[in-house]
Amino acid sequence: MTDNEKLKQRFLRDPLERRLGGLAATLARISSNARNSESTIIVENLLDEAKHFIEWTAADTDAETVAELVQIQQLITLWKKSWKTAVHDKTQRILLSTLAKEWSDKALQSSRLG
């Protein structure tokens, strides 16, 4: 069993609210790490993690939340593809940080935990 499969099994044991809260926490970590040009690998890994969390959660949410999560996942995919060059541009790092904070807030609101 791969680490990713173990993570998925552990993640799916939690109720939907906690999974959305976990997604919000991962997105918040992207926000805080994206501002630092030395956190390239950390941000890449967190982007992957967030993408998986959305994939594993979206089907269990209402239509409005699904739409928001799919949009966030698409943007995460674009950021992941461009991150190796974007990391060298302070403006791009700040933009990702700001967007990830907004995404985190939306996920937390959907979780009803915060």
Q: What share of residues is helical? A: over 70%
Mean pLDDT: 93
How many DSSP E strands? 0
Instruction: Provide the CATH architecture.
Output: Up-down Bundle
Assign an overall shape: globular
Order of helices and strands: HHHHH
Number of domains: 1
- Global structural class: mainly alpha
What brief labels describe this structure?
mainly alpha, 5 helices, globular, 114 residues, 82% helix
Question: What does this molecule look like?
Answer:
With 114 residues, the chain is mostly helical. It has one domain (3-109): Four Helix Bundle (Hemerythrin (Met), subunit A) (Up-down Bundle). It has five helices and no strands. It has helices spanning 3-12, 16-34, 40-57, 63-86, 90-111. Helix 2 packs antiparallel against helix 5 and helix 3 (40-57) runs antiparallel to helix 4 (63-86). It starts with a helix and ends with a helix. The mean pLDDT is 93.
SSE topology sketch:
Elements: H1 3-12, H2 16-34, H3 40-57, H4 63-86, H5 90-111
Helix pairs in contact: 2-3, 2-5, 3-4, 4-5
Short description:
By secondary structure, the chain is an all-alpha fold. The protein has a single domain, classed as Four Helix Bundle (Hemerythrin (Met), subunit A), CATH 1.20.120. It has five helices and no strands.
